[in-house]
Amino acid sequence: MSPFYFLFPPFILFSLCLTSCHDKKENPKQPFKKPKLAVQEASHNPSAEVERFTGAHTRIVWSESNREESFDTFALGERLTLKGIDTRDGRGERLVLDVLGNYSRPLMTSDGKSILYTVKNTKSKNNKKYYKPVIYRTDWKGGAPVKLAEGYATTSWNDPTTGTEWVYAVTHFKSSRALQIEGKKLVRFPLDDPDKVEVVYDETPVTPDNIQISRDGTSASGLFPWPNGGLFRVQNGKWTAQKLLNGCWASHSPDNSGLFWVFNGDHNGVTMFAEDGVKSWEVRFNHHEGLIGNELYHPRWSNHPRILTFTGPYVKQEKVKGSNINNSSSAPHIYLAKFNEKADKIESWLQVTQGKLAESYPDVWIADTGKVNLPGFSIPELDPTTIVHEWPGSREGLLFVWRDRQTLNSFHTRDGKKMESIIESKDAGRFGRHQEMRLDGGTFTIAEDDESAPVLKHLSDSAPASVSMVVLPSLYYKRQDSGKDTSEIIRGPNLSACMEANRLVLTSANGSSKGTEPLPADPFHLAILRKPDGFDAFVNGQRIALVPSASSTPPSAATDTLTFGGNWNGGLLSVVVYDHVLNETEVQLDAQSAERQIAKFTPAPVQIKIRAKLTEASSMPTAEGIDPYTSSLVIYIYDVEKVMEGDFTDKHILVKHWAMLGQKPVDAMPREVGKSYDLVLERESGHPNLKGERVMDDTTAFDLEPWFDVASPRVTTK
What is the rounded CA–CA span in Å between residue 592 and residue 597? Predict the structure, then answer.
């Protein structure tokens, strides 16, 4: 029997955690009870307490800020120390290296003997960060660091077949204003022969936190790049990526159970996945009395499938703008936590460190874990047959490919160059429950970078081109468009597709054409073919009649980007731009793919309409506070006063509202506690698009089912 089945006695919380728990004022009307769970705090003998918690020889390594006033959560600076605990050396918490420097993402090798860390070498210029990371190796005796290779080390894995210890690293980093970092390649090299570098994945950019690999090496977690969290699968040496959720800090179990998680946007738990993402469930990490209501960070699986680590709590400061992660009112510390056997609940916690200095990036090694497994889970075998791409119908001449938010929208151009289609939301543009571009109140544009240049240049040159897309009309969302104004579907250089009185209007520098029949009210496939002598258009694979039009829509030759939506309450999926005119067979293939995609749409969730009085309101997000996210939800608690439509019998309700979209505050937010509001709501469970979104939650209603405000948001444009 594993030593981790040992039952731990209860104990008294330290005053630090009691203080962090009771900083909030209790609401005298609050009917909810905080959960009572087993918790274990480190004493002044952390080695003994750690080993009692894990049941075996344990080593923990992390980065620590050297100044009380500077937490350096992302390990960018040079005033950090490398700290550690080896529960068998009798020294307790101690310095591993006694030199101040940059120690980012400390890692241990699979035998726990060597410590790897990365010096980021971060430079700032013109508000951008530039990285030249270098990987070093030291040991628990504090030996002189040895340079291994350029790059950012993300994990170490021992090949069970050959015994080779491999170091995996991300390389070729781009400069950025964002907090998250990303490189172009994931590589690996033998620990003892770092000059033998192999590229294992370069189909998309990669964010280095966290990549962890299963024991057999066939499955790994990843961000490709942030916020695209999901799974790497390895077959015949080839790594392929599958996005499953927007989020951060993906992490993989160290056994062959195939479990992995993506950290949620509220920074207090994870979405756990099994069977290559087929199954998923939520696990909260902050049920510990000292963590409730606060955020966590740096979550990472240890080399034992039931033990994980993270830092926290990150406690909000009153009247201080910015992220809790960077502006906590108390220093975050290292915690260990233990899953139950089903990995659907945290059953106990241990606070490892104390004091006024902030810790980050913990990694945990536990002895004798080579045969420990989570029962009831396994990594599915990959189908050896070749995957046939059913979409797009043609793989030739691709200039832009965006299927949905859940897809890694990468493709190859005619000359074999790898490209990625990235879109950015504007105003209240957001993603809908089918992971589509939801365009009521806002738009999306193609990202302004080198990847967008070929499609923009081709469209502006008036060369033959085609656009294929799935259109979700406004009526599908039970919304109306203005019959007097033009509603834009897509606008690019020398090409626009709009609607006037629900008729399609196509415009280029050579003039406009208008459809003679109304467009469908249900989701449909639309193909637009720009030819030298005008346009052709197809709806659901059928050619539609077009006539010359004196449209009020001006020619779009001056447009220097590609914009989706504009004064339109609809949505878009599966957008492809080709560098040629599609033939009818290719149009039919895309239409058939769209038909299959639309058939998989889940029915609209049941709505309720209520009048309710606001009793608890979370704080409003700020742009700097949610960086690198650009949007955020807030959680409000209401007392239900009247049910006007639908069935709802509870006296209290938890509602998630959009509070910020595209770095702009949502109109009519925040709301006033004590005031009543009419709400149109659907269960959050019917909106998978909300998973992974940033969430502000200062409430105490931990046991209420979440609902989502489906009213169409608008943002402040001043």
Answer: 9
**Residue 282: what are its φ and ψ, rounded to 5°?**
-95, 140
Instruction: Give the per-residue pLDDT at 394.
Output: 85
Q: What pLDDT, on a 0 to 100 scale, did the predictor assign at position 700?
A: 82
Extract the tokens encoding 665.
Answer: 């505050």
Residue 504 CA: distances (Å) to CA of 40, 149, 308, 546: 65, 57, 55, 9
Whether 170 and 154 have beta carbons less than 8 Å apart is answered as: yes
What type of residue is 117? Y
Query: Which strand (E) or helix (H) includes residue 489?
Result: strand 487-492
What was the pLDDT predicted at 104?
Answer: 93
Pick from 430, 298, 301: nearest CA to 361: 298
Closest CA to 157 of 119, 198, 205: 198
CA 386 to the chain's CA centroid: 29
Residue 26 corresponds to which amino acid? E
Place of tokens 């509220």: 266
Token readout for 579 is 């560098």
Measured CA to CA in angstroms, residue 221 lies from 228, 230, 241, 284, 522 at distances of: 11, 6, 9, 19, 38
pLDDT on residue 14? 34
Higher pLDDT, 5 or 648: 648
Give 467-481 pLDDT, tens digit per residue: 999 999 999 998 887
CA gap 557, 573 in Å, rounded: 24
Q: How far apart are CA 337 and CA 348, in angstroms?
A: 6
Question: Which of 240-254, 381-395, 619-633, 686-700 has the largest mean confidence?
Answer: 240-254
